[in-house]
Amino acid sequence: GPGQAEMYAGLQELGVANGEDLKETLTNCTEPLKAIEQFQTENGVLLPSLQYALPFLDLHGTPRLEFHQSVFDELREKLLERVSAIALEGKVEERYKKLEDLLEKSFSLVKMPSIQPVVMCVMKHLPKVPEKKLKLVMADKDLYKACAVEVKRQIWQDNQALFGDEVSPLLKQYILEKENILFSNDISFLQNFFSLSPKTRRQGEVVQKLTQMIGKNVKLYDMVLQFLRTLFLRTRNVHYCTLRAELLMSLHDLEISEICTVDPCHKFTWCLDACIREKFVDNKRARELQGFLDGVKKGQEQVLGDLSMILCDPFAINTLALSTIRHLQDLVGQDTLPRESPDLLLLLRMLSLGQGAWDMIDSQVFKEPKMEAELITRFLPLLMSFVVDDHTFTVDQKLPSEEKGPIPYPSTIPEAFTKFLQENRIACEIGLYYILHITKQRNKNAFLRLLPALVETFSDLAFSDIFLHLLTGNLTLLSDEFALEEFCTSLFDGFFLTACSRKENVHRHVLRLLLHLHHKVAPAKLESLQKALEPTKQSGEAVKELYNQLSEKLELRKPSPAEVTETPSMELPLPTVPTPASR
């Protein structure tokens, strides 16, 4: 076929006879057999000892093709070894000169499947493949596919669009993997989105593939970061910030100094990574992180955009928020005000830098967001007063109560708290983490007291996937409360159902929770929930699928119709026996 002709076209340029030549010889000769013999002699393997060996192989019925093929394979292996050796020996200029000459000679045969590996191997070892050859490879889909990643990097670094096409499906896959974890049907307070260590996360397929594609190439690394920034701006999806940090730390693990030393965030990210591993910012690391932030020089403010993206990674926010809650509890014990704690102020500074990432990258105004004094003088003391309320209540419960009736748990929320959650992003984030904290402590009273404040929060943060994922996990600790009408009404009617119809993700999280806890919920409540949660025409596949799973489970729980209608044996109607009179 035409493919064959193209495949062997390169042989003639090298003065090697091919099938066309044999055809020509045979067409123009008088004695075909002699001509064939001569062609074999001229183009066979030139080894005198073979003259006698070949007829011997013929007697054993070994086809010449098979023999030539095995000789060829053997030679190709030797050649591949030799190419790899050349790439390591002698002076740098000399070895590359040798490889370039070899590429010049062999490139015309690149379409021959048997020779292709050799040509590819030569290119792989050349730090700079000639532009013309790269263009030819790029123009041919099959050649491009067959190329080593070392050669592809040389093509990508000058073709952002092509590199984008390669990276794009990986980024989609990454986001999908994150969402699958957040919406997973396994709900537990022990295992959640944040349970995996940073080291384990970096072993993920996408991070590994991107690391491999980038190699030591700073230009490609910068391109990936540019993609991540652009996508973060376009979608506001914070998982891109996680990938930004994971990629840098993956290159750090491999000690790729070519890249790590030029990324100004490297040391900051490395230090923060250690905090994320411990899920806590200790004092020593706090000082270190502060040093990096204070050390941003005039004229280098742009690095704040990168640092803010690193701090916007949900794993970083989670660590900072958990540390903040721990600090607040310590302050209650020490009778210290938030504004007197430098460690706490640093945590807030990093939280607001992280939460301000999108605005900073969007506006390209690189300065740290101003911290609102109210947050420190009013909001945090308010949270501390909740901690105190809990202590007081617990102590009161233990006191002998003959002289006084039982002291009720404070049920109202200060209006200021609700207002802060609606209007201040950092306050909202910390408030939500405080609610996760009391849920994890199985503190039902505190949970029910603060729950109404979650219906309206800053940019609907209480209905974000990460918060709902953590909340549903922690609620499994209060599973026994689900039997109580009052608890269910507060949680479902008072919170979840207020957003279900306008937010598909909330609908999904409620269904996840019920799939897990339906057997704990009071039957009457369960029935009304099943009605309320029925998918609409607008609902997506995921909601319908979850709803069907739930319905199936509830179907199995119902007593069978036989059990319901069974009547006591006493009241069985007597069989009608015809009386003799009616005969």
| Helical segment count | 32
Percentage of residues in strands: under 5%
Task: Report the mean per-residue pLDDT as an integer.
Answer: 87
Contiguous uncertain segments of 5+ residues: none
Helical residues, percent: 55-70%
Number of strands: 0
Mass-distribution shape: elongated
Helix/strand/pairing class, anyone? mainly alpha
Q: Sketch the major β-sheet.
A: none
CA radius of gyration is: 36 Å
Q: How many individual domains?
A: 3
Straight-line distance between termini: 98 Å
Region (Disordered): 557-583
Protein name: NELFB factor
Pfam families: COBRA1
InterPro entries: COBRA1
Structural account:
With 583 residues, the chain is an all-alpha fold. It has 3 domains: 47-126; 160-373, no CATH class; 412-549. It has 32 helices and no strands. Helix 17 packs antiparallel against helix 18 (283-294). It is elongated. The protein starts with a helix and ends in an 18-residue tail after the last helix. The model has no long low-confidence stretch (mean pLDDT 87).
